[in-house]
What does this fold into?
Amino acid sequence: MRKIGVLTSGGDSPGMNAAIRAVVRKAIFHGLEVVGVRRGFAGLIAGDFMPMQLGSVADIIHRGGTVLRTARAPEFLARESQEKAVRNLRDQGIDALVVIGGDGSFRGASVLGSYGIHTVGVPGTIDNDIPCTDNSIGFDTAVNNVTDAINKVRDTATSHERVYVIEVMGRNSGHIALAAGLAGGAESILVPEVPYNLNEICERLERGVKRGKLHSIILVAEGAGSALEVGEALKKKTNMETRVTILGHLQRGGTPTAYDRMLASRLGAAAVDTLLEGCYGKMVGLESGKVKVTSFDEVFRQKKEFPEDLYKLATILAI
Ligand code: ATP
It folds into this structure.
């Protein structure tokens, strides 16, 4: 192996730049050439390549987003586009590819594997919905962004004695809502993994008022329903003053936390090591502090476990 490519795909996540930096520098350290592919699989089809040197990744470790840019490229599902992408890779003399992204991106990487392109995946998504790794790159930053937003909303909630319903990202998973809800002391956390009952949430709100609570924060994961509808229903049932805040893309941007930068640095470097060892069709993750390499097939078979114990704890602490 002499030359490798690197791309970011799917939704951007803070820490992707640190992962790109690690891939480029670790590869150059081992004497490999590195080519960056812009805009994920779309750039692979279009042949949007850029040679990467040590300096190409200077001054990016602290920046959110991805300098290689990213895209959702549904056209990559078509066989012709895949063949074009493979031709472009071969023309460039690229022997292997590191794909930084989520589950969909790994499916794309796996497809490239079926054409004989060696690929390794690095989990980068704020949703933390990828199994075989404790965290994906960007999750910690998103959780910190949401926790910071809860702190700010809480000031107004207390001053005006209101109920705030805050909607957070996570697609079909409730990991961001749970972690930020626990860290931010939310009264209730609505996630797709656990069925909820609005009457019970109202009872909890009313109990809180009775014991002198000045405000309540309810987090709703986007996969569990609409905060607007939840807010409307709670207002009707309790007659309490209720406001809704949808955090949206504020959660995804900003400088990555030290944790995400370290995770990205370790996984980016591990991806290069994995390729150098002749392993491919795999994802690198971090479990209990150690790098773990898992086949894409296994990653696709498994489902990320939802930490029920933490959910129970959050419920008890918000009694
Ligand atoms: P995020 O978690 O941020 O959404 P993701 O990697 O899961 O990240 P997707 O939009 O699902 O994001 O996938 C990214 C890209 O991967 C798609 O736009 C497409 O180009 C490619 N891809 C997804 N699924 C497949 C598939 N089954 N076969 C080939 N390519 C795929």
User: Anything to note?
Assistant: Residues 9-11, 41, 72-74, 76-77, 101-105, 107-108, 111, 125, 127 surround adenosine-5'-triphosphate (CB under 6 Å). The mean pLDDT is 96.
